[in-house]
Amino acid sequence: MTLLAQKLMMLNGKRVISSQPTDSAIFGSARSLSRFTTTVNSRSLARSSLDGLPAGSSRLRIGLWPCVSAEAPKLAMGLNIVLAFLLERYSDIQVYRILAKLDDTQSPDSYEWYISDSQFGIDDWEIEGLDENVFINSTLNKSDGKWQLQVEVESEFDDEDEDVPVFSLQAADTLALIKSLPQLVEQIAVHLNTSHQRLTATTYQIENGFDEESLPNFLSLVFEWELNLYLLLWGKAWEDEDIEQLLDRLISSAAILDDFGAWTLGLLLRRTFLPGFALVGDILAPKIPQIAETFLHYPALQIHLGWSALRMGRSDVAYVLLERAVEAHQQSPRLWLTLAEAYRSERGWDDALDTFQTAIELEAVDSVLYQRYADLLLTASYNDYEFEEFLLIDPDDYDGDYAVWEAIAAFEAAYELDNDIDTLYYALVQLSSLDEDMFWDKFSQLANADTTGEYVRNLLESAHDIDDFTPAIEALEHLNKENPERVDILTNMGLAYTLNDEHDKAIELLEQALEKATEPEHIADIQRLLLVAEDPMFEARFAELTSQLEAGKSISESDMDFLEEALETAPSIVDLYLAIARGYALWEDFDAAIEVLEDGLKELPDDPDITELYAGVLWLQDKTEAAITTLEQALEKHPHHVPLLCRMGRCMFDSDEEELAREYLARAELIEPENPILRRTRAYIARALANE
After folding, report:
1. 147 phi and psi, to 5 degrees?
2. N or C: which end of the chain has fewer CB within 10 A?
3. β-strands 166-171, 146-155: how paired?
4. What is the CB-side half-sphere exposure of residue 627 using CA atoms within 13 A?
5. pLDDT tens digits for 289-334?
6. Under 8 Å CB-to-CB from 388, ≥6 apart: which residues?
7. Which segments of 256-298 does DSSP mark as H helices, in order?
């Protein structure tokens, strides 16, 4: 793994550990490992609700390779940066900008950049150790006077037999390209199955045309700024004077590009305050108020500068910027939202609630503002906060729980604005414990809107205060008649009958669903529900046995019979194979454990969890070569699976291959630093080192 990969992943909220060798341990010291603890900074968690950055690894980690263009490479690379900003509006996306081909054997200080260094494809060069699972490669060409942008999006989630999808747009000029880019990104987002945007996500508006040269020049400067940040991560110095000169050129160029210029500049500056760019951020910090004043007309830039001030710990500056911005743009919901969330993260609930309610009174609202207002109401209510007033309900109409009713009203208002099923779901979650009649009135609405069955499933399983699920059964039966091909409706009907203690009918429906199911995860899910329908205490007993086995405690023969009978009913449930194999291993019947795991791999080929335990049992039997080969093959298919990495690291440590052990555990640490298997592996190493 390269240091550049570590730093790029660190930018996205990951804690990065050193992969350099030490005298006493794989990482850190034996003493620190043996008393390993986990701490959480509550203030940073609060702030994450504003910036929307993930605490760990996002679901979609995009490696963004250069946009290659024979006619205008710098313009193409600037366009690529805008593409990255638009993608990063989505809350489960991280974008790793791969902006230049670098040689780790070369000293960064002696490196001289040429445009050819930034014109290459996925097959030409990659950053070793980067944990991307989506790969974007693009080209920009000009033909017959028109620009043609083509974006290839390959992901680990795609069917290997299908062609790599290509998204394209054609435009007469650069301005038309920029205008069309948000729609192109929306198509990519649909393909990647993502839709939820970060709280402070904004999009530019283009209302006026620009001078023919102004836009390409600005995009070239945007690329130059990002390239320097990228090279800075690698280790190449960026002189203060050069930073200030390029910033001045960016500001001047952005100023004539209206909302697009301000939007892009705001995001460039916002990124500059991420970890890893502190030296540049220190130079920019004193300039933020003046930049905000220059671009006061543009709300998006104010949002991003306010966020930047919070990021560098200057909440006082953030409040001044955002308060002035909402005064200038009183009808901007996202500005009010950003100010409220800034107050919430630093000052507490009083100012945040007041800000939300002021926005609602001014009708400066959107769905997200209503949702976040509801979330704050519920959080404050659960912490016994004393509310002074409510805007969306009349407390005289209710017997109590006023804040919860206000939150329900906020969710309903959000749903009226965007018909987002999430908001309807959140309202129903609260209604389930307050008003059963209202809950069932809206349940059918949710069921009709739920195209995957996931919301209905989660709602049924969380409705602990409801005893009679007959209304759910009736609503789902009606849906099933209209959609007989949908497995999820049959599955949810089976769950509803189970919750209603009508187990025979539940089993009948779940068996029908199982006959229709084709996706492995659906099959396993239905099989688990069948186990519960047959034995309502299955989940509780299975959870108890799993905890016992994971703690290294042996189980009885009757418990083993229980697990093996369950496996006969549900041969697609990974956890059953793991539990039975652990049980046999604790009895020191390793042959039986291996047989069970091999059966699991026949049923569920290449499952990483079964493979990891299989390798572990092989290792216990001194079949070290077979164990290592098994792990190597599994990691080729699942390179970011933390338990596999930990198992390989532990095997390397036991083989006195500490350098290799350090590498595997460093990769695991980058991906999921608080994984419990990683913690146990670290503790194992600490004990071994302490006993040397």
Report:
1. -85, 140
2. C
3. antiparallel
4. 24
5. 999 999 999 999 999 999 888 877 888 889 999 999 999 999 999 9
6. none
7. 258-272, 278-284, 288-294
Written as one letter, the residue type at 240 is D
Enumerate domains of the chain plus CATH numbers. Answer: 57-202+212-218 (3.40.50), 370-534 (1.25.40.10), 541-690 (1.25.40.10)
Give the helix ranges, DSSP H, for 483-607.
487-499, 503-516, 520-534, 538-550, 557-569, 574-586, 590-603
pLDDT band at 34 (very low <50, low <70, confident <90, very high): very low
154: left (phi over 0), alpha (psi -120 to 50) or beta: beta
- Alpha-carbon span 394 to 306, nearest angstrom: 35
308: tokens are: 């930047």
Quick: pLDDT tens for 100-154: 999 888 899 999 999 999 999 999 999 988 888 999 999 999 999 899 999 999 9
Q: What is the spatial distance between Cα 225 and Cα 270, in angstroms, rounded to a whole number?
A: 12
What is the Cα–Cα distance from 145 to 381, expressed in whole angstroms? 61
pTM of the complete model beyond 0.85: no
pLDDT tens profile 469-508: 999 999 999 999 999 999 999 999 999 999 999 999 999 9
Q: Helix %, strand %, coil % for the chain, to 5?
A: 65, 5, 30
How far is 410 from 403, CA to CA, in rounded Å?
10
What is the CA angle 439-444-446, rounded to 5? 85
List C-alpha distances in Å: 127 to 96, 199, 652: 10, 31, 24
Nearest to 682 by CA among 235, 29, 154, 86: 29
